[in-house]
Amino acid sequence: MTDEADVTNDIKLRFGRPDDFAALRSLRGEVFCDELGIQERSYHDVIFDWYSKNVVLLAGNRLIGAVRLAYIRDWQEYYVSYLCLAAQYRRKAHLRLLFGAIILLMKRNGIRSIRADSSDANLMMYQAMGCVPIGGKFKKPGFVCDWTPMRYDIGVNAAAEESLSERAAAHFEPWTESDLTWVFDTVFHRCDTASAFGATFETLLEKDLIPGHLPYLARPDRVIDLPHDEAFTRHLRTVEVRSDDDEFFSATSTASPTRPACPDRTTITASSRFAHLNARFSSKTLVAVLVDSEALVLARLYAVLTCKRLVELNDWGELPSLCPPSVSSVTAIIGPADRALSTAVLSAAQRRCAIGLLTAADLPALSSTLLGSYLNFIGPTQVAIAVRPVGLVSYEAPTGACGGGLGPGLWSLAGGPEMTVVAIGPYHLLIVPARICRAAVAAISEFLKVGYAIGQSVRLVREECLGDEPILLMGDPSLRLDIAPSEKNVEATRRLAAVSN
After folding, report:
1. What is the tens place of the pLDDT at every residue in 283-338?
2. Helices 272-280 & 296-306, crossing angle to 10 degrees?
3. Angle at the Cα of 215 (from 210 to 219), degrees rounded to 5?
4. By CB distance 3.0 to 4.6 Å, which of 90, 280, 369, 458 could disulfide with 403?
């Protein structure tokens, strides 16, 4: 890389758009597969460009460099990846422009720290930019090289950061406020029946439009049936699509986002695309659903969004067999008409890995619950802990974690006046015996503070402190939840999780 002091006038920065995604994938392939030979061609990118901030470097109209700032949902941390330049444009001045753009995004969004992984070849470059190693070398699925985890903290060199961000701003094409802030355009496709949802899901998947386009199952008697609460929409500017006539109309947006083209309505019956993707998803985090469940297609969408491998079970009795030591968590998606999951089966599974349940009183509520459980965590989300007594009335109250009600199939696990519900944000509930509630919440909070995922925290507390006392986790178990400052001091809130799950 030559040390060129200036940048030619045709070099510009721009925030990436959906129509840049193909060119971005092509540039990454050229650099990481063809030139460096460190990425396998079969690698499936587990970070969605749609819900990331891509900065592209242009020479005229040609894309010559890029960097991506993403938010890793399970980690709840910002992460920089795919910093690359085409070979003939590999200059320090161009690299500084891309790094300056990341500084701009950090400052605008109040980001204190970002994570990155460096190959051995680029380690000195990352360190020269102020990044520090935070762990030993490791292997990454889909890559053949060793990686070193890195971290950059804003303010390490305030003067240099100011210079880099000002220089980057001078080379940016005009931007909008939403380009800089952590919000994203999303097209929702309304489906009035489960069969329509399945057909729409297959169409969007085949056309590679997920997650920018998302199907949801609506109640036929309502024109709009998406949650409008902040937990669901805080990171979105929403455009809704009527699946019957493809008519666009605004659902929750206060802005006017660019409306992506709506796909045609060709019905696709085969699931070859899903099977292909599912085989590439990590087998360390799983989604489980009954093979004959009416929630099967909803579970497939959730698996695609979260990049968890879907396993279809003939019976819930097979759940413990999914939990060898290599599996860290299982999210069980339970349809409202599914056969009951027994206490004995759940206890056996919990002894092996972290288990979380996602369910609802009906399919439209379950569709909303699954979308909320994903979209609520595509950006920073602090959650508060609230404890309240529980009975039948409490479960019927609308809540993201159980979609307006548990349904009869779970009462054998959670029902009874002696149980207490602990709400951890809008999409997680703990259901515990009242007599051990205080001890359980205190112990789980301590594990969350040091960076354990919620499911692993529940599992460890159950094993180490509570023996065979039942603790039921409603919600995705793989998430590291950031407890609000009232529950956790600010310094600990900003601390990077140092505990591997």
Report:
1. 999 999 999 999 999 999 999 999 999 999 999 999 999 988 899 999 999 998 88
2. 50
3. 170
4. 369
